[in-house]
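[job 0412] stage=complex_fold ligand=zinc ion status=START
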Amino acid sequence: MARDRESTPSAQQPLRPAQERERAAPGKVTLTQRLAPVGGAPVQRKAALGDSAPRPPVKSAWAWTNDPWMDTAHRGTQPPGLGTAPVQAKRAAGTGPVVQREGEGTVSRGGGEHVVVRGDTLWDIAQATYGHGRYWTRIRDANRGRVFRGGHLIHPGVTLTLPAIEVPILDTMRRNEDDPEALRDFAGSISDADYQAFLGALDAEEREANAQFLQLVEMMRSSGMTMQELADEQRTFLEGEAARRGESIGTYIHGQIATHGYGGGSATWWPSLTPDEQADWEERFRRVQEAVRGAATDDVRQIIEQAEAAGGGFVWAPEDCERNGAFGFTRIDHRLYVGRRWVEAAEADPTSVFANIAHEMGGHNEYGEPLHGFAIMEQVVADLPEDERDEALSGGNSLFSTYGYMETEIFAELREHTYDRDDNPTDHPSDDVGHQLERIRDAFAPRVAEALVRGLWRRVQLDDRVPEPSKELFRTNAEAIFGITLT
Ligand SMILES: [Zn+2]
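[job 0412] stage=complex_fold status=DONE, emitting structure tokens
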């Protein structure tokens, strides 16, 4: 099935400078502070993280330079940062500490014994038993006479009692946010029944604040892998595909991006217009925008108002729309950039663009970042030797559009689904959801693709803005295309 570019935001990469993106990286600062031991360091924490230390995160700078959206035609048309601040504020809210109500969403841990071996620390025993080292004091308190120096000295051969503790699931996972292997292990150790009960106990506010995080956790839980391990799996897969064709991995990725990605088009119509003609189009945009507002139903008006409150709204961008073959698009900055065809469609019938508004202003922006498939591929490319990396990214199309776009597009299509009708000037969610799922299946190693889809399902399932029929649209397509069951 041919990809429909009508509603494609293409590689609408954020225009934020790289350092701003890094500053916005989830959890980095707050988590370190939260993890700082209170009242003195517990038993020597593993001196060096060694093998388990996460590799340095990908530096974003190079990754975006390949993206056509770095051609920032609009930079300067708005005060810098106007559209990005709310995104970051929202992200910060989503990654901050979350208070979990007592007695809900816990998992029972401990209750057994542990025979101390050389090298053990109470911190590590607590980590392995309860999912976090912070419970080491509970072991100390349960073993008076068997631990010394306040718990800092334990002797090999001694049997320690491990008290039974109700460990809060969400709180413990959040505390492990900076330790992917601990998060993977703890999340993976919870039974499906306990995990479903935990999810079922989350209220609307908790679901919204944790949706992105729980999506990531689902990827780890279902695959048993951290993001780095998923990236390693993906790299092995790509190396195998490249070898089958007798290509280097850089050449293979380059070819995938050239074939399946997009970006890098050119505009001819808009630059050919006279200044008077351009001014006339701008006036038509202004007028039709008011017509759309006037016709908007309450829920569509709410999407527009939320976008505007976040610093976004409608933006006249005929040249970018033409360059990208887009009906309308967003850069995940709460703005809906529109061009000629959007204005013509809205002039003919203002209600015909509601689907596009729900898709771009709503869906893509509500999904936000990170895009996990893109993050995995950024890591894969970052881990390549420099010449392979340069080769992979040397084309005009974007890595993002080849590996990241699908998940945000699926979410946007699900948001659009409610407003879809036969004369939709863009493509139809009932077709595109399946198409994008197939793209994920084909672009990633099987286990990575499944992790992405299971994570996405969790995200969709927990999002109250996605109505039940749209959730079903995702579930039935994903189950058929991947041959899996989603619960
Ligand atoms: Zn889209």
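Strands lie at 106-109, 113-115, 159-161, 165-168, 313-316, 328-329, 335-338.
[job 0412] exit 0
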